[in-house]
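Thread title: Can someone regenerate the structure for this chain?

I was given the following input by a collaborator and told the matching C-alpha cells would be attached. They weren't. Posting the sequence so someone can regenerate them.
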Amino acid sequence: MKIADIGEQGLLKKLQRFCPSEIVGDDAAVLETVPNTSLVVTTDVLIDGVHFSDRTTSAEDAGWRAAAANLSDLAAMGASPVGITVGLGLRGDVSVTWVEDLYRGLTQCLQIYKTPIVGGDIVRSPVISIAITAFGRVRKSQTIYRNQARVGDAIVVTGIHGAASAGLELLLDPQKGENLTESERAALIEAHQRPQPRLDVLPVLWDILNSQDSEFASPRVAGMDSSDGLADAIFQICRASNVGAAIERNRIILHPAMKKLLGKAAQIESALYGGEDFQLVLCLPKESAVKLVQILDANAAIIGTITADSTVLLTDETGEFKDKPLSLKQSFQHF
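Best answer:
Regenerated them for you:
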C-alpha cells in the first residue's frame, strides 16, 4: 500500500495513534508551561540522501535519529523535553509501512524521555524530508548558553567521539574492519543509527553547581552538543565567549574498536570532525568539572582548558607533536 492509495487524511489517521488523543486534532497544540520557566524551541530538518539513506538507515533508525537530534539540542540548552511536532515531505510512492516505521522509531526514542508527538504536517515532495520541532522547558537560572565560557574553565565532554562516524564508514563499506568482532562492529553501527541524547547529564550537572559545597555563588556553565563535531562545538563556544581553548589530544574519549578500524591520526580526525555523536561539550569551573567527571565516570572526561588566546589548539602532553591549531574546514558544512 502506497501513500497515494490512502491520501493525506488516510495517512494522518494512521499516524494520529502515535500522538496523545487529547492534544492532537486542533489547529495547534496547547502545552502547559511552568511559572519562572522558559520555553525552549528547536528545529531540525533531515533530508533523504543527506542525513539518512536506505544504504545506512532503516525507517525506524531514521525516526530515532530525528528524535535524538532534537532532544540533544534541548539537552544542550539545559532543557527538559515537553513535546515535538513532525513535518514530513513525502513522495506518493513511499510505502505506508515506511512512514509507520519512521514513527515507531521516533516513538521508541521519545518514550525513554516521556516526550509525546503533539502535532505536525505532511506535504507532497520529490524527496523525503523530516522536519522536527521540539519544545522544552528550563528554569531561567539553569539555561545553558554558548557565551558563558571563561578563561580557566575546564572543558568537559560527556562521552565517546568518533564512533558514529566510524559506524557510518562500516555501513557504507561493509568490507572495512574485517578484524572487528561482531560486538565491536555492532557497537560502532549503533552509535551512528541510535545515538543517545544526553538529557541524563543535566540533573547531575545542576546538583553539582547548586550544591552547598560549591564555591560559586552563581552557577555558570557554557555548552552545546557535538552533533556537528567536537571541534565545531568547541569553536562555537569559544567564538560566542570571545575566548580560545587548548585541547589535549590523548584525553578525548575514543571507542576501543576504533583502534582496529583507523590509524591513530585518523581516530582523532574522526573524533574532532566526524560529527553526529550527540554528546554534550560543557565549559565550567575546574572544581565543578572534576566532580561532574567523577560522577559520570567513564562517560565523561576533561579534555582541555579555556584560554585567553583566540585560537583553538590541539596539544599533546607526551610531546609527540607540536601544538596544532584546529580548523573548521574539515567539519561538515551543508554549503
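DSSP finds ten helices and eleven strands in the chain.
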